[in-house]
Design goal:
Number of domains: 1
Largest sheet: 5 strands, mixed
Order of helices and strands: HEEEHHEE
Number of helices: 3
């Protein structure tokens, strides 16, 4: 792995850790981090008050660049990974489900966007 790729990996892990702490301070319970499935990966899975959130974390040079980095294909991949996660955790299937995004930029607090997109089924 190149040095640049390793630095990006470290930055991504740091952003996910920051977001997990941010969520916990707001009453969320973290169920999983970097949950890998054959169809994709979930950065953070958290639950609070009967809602399970599948949270994609994006770290970029600024919040706008982070927001622009999530495309339709990635949303579909995250939705498939969420379905795979719920298959392994059937007791969570009764929770309301949503897809959130957390945007991270240097020297800024994370921006949490609840219900960032919907998957129509």
């Amino acid at each position: 792995m190149s040095e640049r790729r390793q630095a990006a990996e470290r930055a991504g892990r740091s952003a996910e850790t920051l977001c997990a702490w941010w969520l916990m301070l707001r009453g969320w319970r973290i169920l999983a981090r970097r949950s890998r499935h054959a169809v994709g990966e979930l950065d953070i899975v958290a639950v609070r008050r009967g809602v399970i959130a599948f949270i994609e974390v994006k770290a970029r040079r600024d919040v706008a660049a982070a927001a622009e980095s999530i495309g339709a294909r990635q949303q579909e991949r995250i939705a498939r990974a969420a379905a795979a996660f719920l298959q392994r955790q059937p007791h969570l299937a009764t929770h309301d489900q949503r897809f959130d995004v957390m945007l991270v930029a240097p020297w800024r607090l994370p921006v949490h966007i609840p219900n960032a997109w919907h998957i129509l089924g």
